[in-house]
Amino acid sequence: MYTIGIDLGGTNIVSAVVNDEYEIIATSKTKTNSPRSAEEIFDDIAKVTLEAIEKAGLTINDIESVGLGTPGTVNGEGVIEFANNLVFNNVPAKQMLIDRLGIEKVYIENDANCAALGEAYAGVGNGAKDFVAVTLGTGVGSGVIVGGKIVNGVNYAGGECGHMVIVVDGEQCTCGRKGCWEAYASATALINQTKAAMEENPDSVMHKIAAEEGKVSGRTAFDAMRKGDIAGIKVVDQYIKYVACGLINIINALQPEIICVGGGICNEGETLMKPLRKYIEAERYSIYSKIQTKVVKAQLGNDAGVIGAAILNKVKD
After folding, report:
1. Which of 34, 109, 134, 150 has the largest count of CB atoms under 10 Å?
2. pTM of the predicted structure, to 2 decimals
3. Mean of the pLDDT values across residues 100-128?
4. pLDDT digits (tens, 9 = 90+) for 176-202
């Protein structure tokens, strides 16, 4: 049998048919075009799902279950209680998919949790039962798996590691708190740190790099560092320290088998991962333990979410 994984994002809706080996057989996607009504969006979700099934040469009867990953908070009844970027409040997502597809086995979960599940089962996790996935993007997303199960918490909003404070009374975070890890370790934060360093260092090569790219990006400081630019080196080193601080906190609190780090910044590869591991090795609480948490680069990229959504039936039943 096959399962369906759906990634509902602020920009795109992607639906994929996934087999028992966690391989994507066929996909279909469309623009989310948010904000608009949940009814319109779920009509499009059903449409791309049926298109993906048809592309795979299957029928709806070949589908065992459907999983949907969505931004926001999802409760145990499959209701999206709140998703600010989709303007969703108490949307009965599970029932809406059942009504549109005629499949009873439907699972709804936060998108970061789905990405963690995908990496844990089909990516770098190799089936690890205690696993954390962190994504360095516009914000800092995270999903926590303990004992093979997603950690949702009493209110289904658990696992939000991006909103642990690493600097008391620090930078303002979009969540309302100050000093959150997200405010220092996200790609958005890196861009802001780069811009601040450029203002303080008018002779930095970062100005030339940004002009050539047409903007300041998450790569600007890294590219400058590779050219030996002192300001760029300082930005990168400080940023990596911020990322490491949050990862060490997670390790000290949970001691997972594996933490995987994803997001566009991870395209830097070992330029990012090697110094990250050095900071972690120096500061983790379990410094003398024989077994240590492995810190690795995410493997599945944009496919992690849909694969994780497709295998929600394995952890929800």
Report:
1. 134
2. 0.87
3. 92
4. 899 999 999 999 999 999 999 999 999
Using a 10 angstrom Cβ sphere, with 0-12 exposed, 13-18 middle and 19 or more buried, the burial of residue 171 is middle
Average of pLDDT values for 168-181? 93
The SS3 call for residue 221 is helix
| H helices present in the chain, as ranges | 38-55, 93-101, 111-122, 182-185, 187-200, 206-213, 220-226, 230-254, 270-283, 303-310, 312-316
Q: How far apart are CA 135 and CA 155, in angstroms?
A: 22
What is the C-alpha separation between 72 and 79, in angstroms, rounded?
10
Bridge partner residues of 68 (DSSP): 6, 108
Interior/surface letters 76-109, b for 16+ CB within 10 angstroms, e for the rest = eebbbbbbeebebeebbbbebbbebbebeebbbb
Q: What are phi and psi of 287, to 5 degrees?
A: -60, -30
- Do residues 189 and 173 touch, judged by C-beta distance below 8 A? no
Instruction: Count Cβ atoms below 10 Å from residue 285 Cβ, excluding itself.
Output: 12
- The 10 Å Cβ neighbour count of residue 183 is 26
- Per-residue buried b or exposed e for 189-202, using 16+ beta carbons within 10 Å of the residue's own CB: bbbebbbebbeebe
Neighbours of 59 (CB within 10 A): 10
Q: For residue 28, what are its two tokens? A: 């279909």
CA distance 106 to 124: 26
Residue 302: is its pLDDT beyond 90?
Answer: no
The owner of tokens 């959150």 is 180
Q: Which of 22-31, 120-129, 183-192 is least confident?
A: 120-129
Query: Is residue 287 classed exposed, middle or buried when 0-12, 13-18 and 19+ CB atoms within 10 A define those classes?
Result: exposed
